[in-house]
Design a protein that fits this description.
The protein has about 220 residues and is of the alpha/beta class. The protein folds into 2 domains: about 30 residues; about 180 residues, 3-Layer(aba) Sandwich (Rossmann fold), CATH 3.40.50. It is about 55% helix and about 15% strand. It has 10 helices and 7 strands. A 5-stranded parallel sheet has the order 4-5-3-6-7, sandwiched between helices. A two-stranded antiparallel sheet has the order 1-2. Strand 1 and strand 2 form a beta hairpin. Helix 5 packs parallel to helix 6. It starts with a strand and ends with a helix.
């Protein structure tokens, strides 16, 4: 059906011309989040904790609420596959140390930053598994007030039981204790735990962890 329309102008437009304007407006509006995400209210949440504390479980709750999950440990897994090495504690530690020797103590945050930036174009982000004080400083300096740090705290005895019984890459108590010492003494992991904006105590049922994480998500909205 032919017709003549006016769109906020003294000039008249045909139906065909009006449809072109509408299509152009739709394309523009659809691309606004990607073009202007730095100006919008986006959030980067990082989760820190010792091995077996429940970091990934907390990250999954954020993921269920629409946060894109960036797992720092994926960097290690990908490097192990690239080198053709099996996944075990000894190889993982060797790769972590090699990457930090090459990229500095903020290696995992530095290497994950492009993934975080890309994910932020579409949603908020939860970074699963922050390790070092240097990684914390890099992310805090980069994202400023948009950055929130959550620590998941669990007693060593509870963590060691979990690590020994997990289906993938279980650790003996000796391996878990050795990893604790390495992360505290060599990775400066105590710093970010001390500076956390929120602390979740996770010594009981997973439902308690999930409820506490939900409470924090509500506060961040």
């Amino acid at each position: 059906m032919a017709g003549v329309y006016q769109i906020a102008s003294s000039r008249s437009f045909t139906l065909s011309e009006a449809n072109v304007f509408i299509q152009m407006a739709e394309i523009y509006l659809c691309n606004l989040p990607c073009l202007n995400y730095n100006m919008s209210i986006v959030k980067v949440v990082a989760i820190v904790g010792m091995a077996g504390s429940g970091k990934s479980e907390a990250a999954r709750v954020f993921e269920a609420h629409g946060y894109a999950r960036v797992r720092f440990g994926d960097i290690t897994d990908e490097e192990l596959r690239r080198r053709g090495l099996p996944l075990n504690e000894q190889n993982e530690r060797a790769v972590r140390e090699a990457l930090r020797k090459e990229h500095g103590m903020a290696a995992y945050a530095k290497l994950s930053l492009p993934r975080i930036e890309a994910a932020l174009k579409k949603s908020n982000v939860v970074a699963d598994g922050l390790y070092s004080w240097e990684e914390y400083k890099l992310l805090k300096d980069h994202f400023g007030d948009k950055f929130t740090l959550i620590a998941v705290a669990t007693s060593p005895a509870t963590r060691y039981r979990r690590l020994a019984s997990r289906p993938h890459r279980p650790l003996t108590q000796e391996e878990a204790a050795s990893r604790d010492r390495a992360e505290i003494e060599n990775l400066n992991k105590g710093g970010p735990i001390a500076m956390a904006d929120f602390v979740i105590r996770n010594d009981s049922a997973v439902t308690v962890l999930q409820k506490e994480t939900e409470r924090i998500i509500a506060q961040l909205k």
